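Hey, I was hoping to borrow your eyes for a little while. For a while now I've been wondering how a particular protein folds. The fold is given in discrete form, as structure tokens running alongside the sequence. Could you read through the record and tell me how the tokens relate to the sequence? Take your time with it, there's no hurry, and the full record follows here:
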Amino acid sequence: MLQIKYRPRRSCLYMPASNTRALEKAKTLAADTIIFDLEDAVAPDAKEEARANACAALQSGDYGKRELVVRINATDTPWFAQDLKQACLAKADAVLVPKILSADNIIQISALMDECDAALDTKLWAMIEMPLAILNLAEIAALGAHQRLTGFVMGFNDLAKEMHADHDRAVFGSVMTQTVIAARAYGLDVIDSVYNDFSDPGGLEAECLEAKRLGFDGKSLIHPAQIETANWVFAPHAKEITEAEAIIAAFKDPVNAGKGVIVVDGKMTELLHLKQAKQLVETAAAIDALAK
């Protein structure tokens, strides 16, 4: 695992674990996070083979600094228990569990993970894709302070189906805001849903820009062609880095010692802006570290 305070998750790419060629290709891709998928992308008769492939990939040491996550099958499926156990034993960075409904789900899953991973190395991510999960967001997120839960991943395809709604992103504006607020209230990371048309880079960029404005850390992806756009949108840009460094330098200046508000480049700048500037510079450094 990359030893930095902040881990970039600009691009979280689903790769079907039943496809060994895809797993091999993932070793060369610039995605921050690879999600070995045992759920939607894998047919029922290929589930066990996919699990074995994912575990072999986790233990191979061939994926460099990429974060490695396994999306397992839901708790009400016959594959759930072994998916969870084997992902923990193979030292996945995180397990992504679909169809989460309530805080009780998180507590129960965390307890099962404790049985095979006492060191707490493998974290828990929750798919937010069911109506009950939306109603229970605060209670679920609150467990991030006490359980293994460290992140939310939006799943609008399933949520649209469950709501009997159109597959129109505008439908989910309030859901996105609620999820980000719940995640940030309890220190969780939060990843946006997939963009289904991988042949439409303009549409993908628009969704990434919207997600960044709302506070998401990155976007889940379904095709390698989407990585470059997500990485660019969710990374700090040169102008932002320059401005952040200027704020940090200004507060370090002895002239401004002890001040809570100063002027930087003609703008009133408070301590909260200093905190944001440090976060942005740390993010840029972490992205650079991934590239080396």
User: Anything to note?
Assistant: DSSP finds twelve helices and ten strands in the chain. The mean pLDDT is 94.
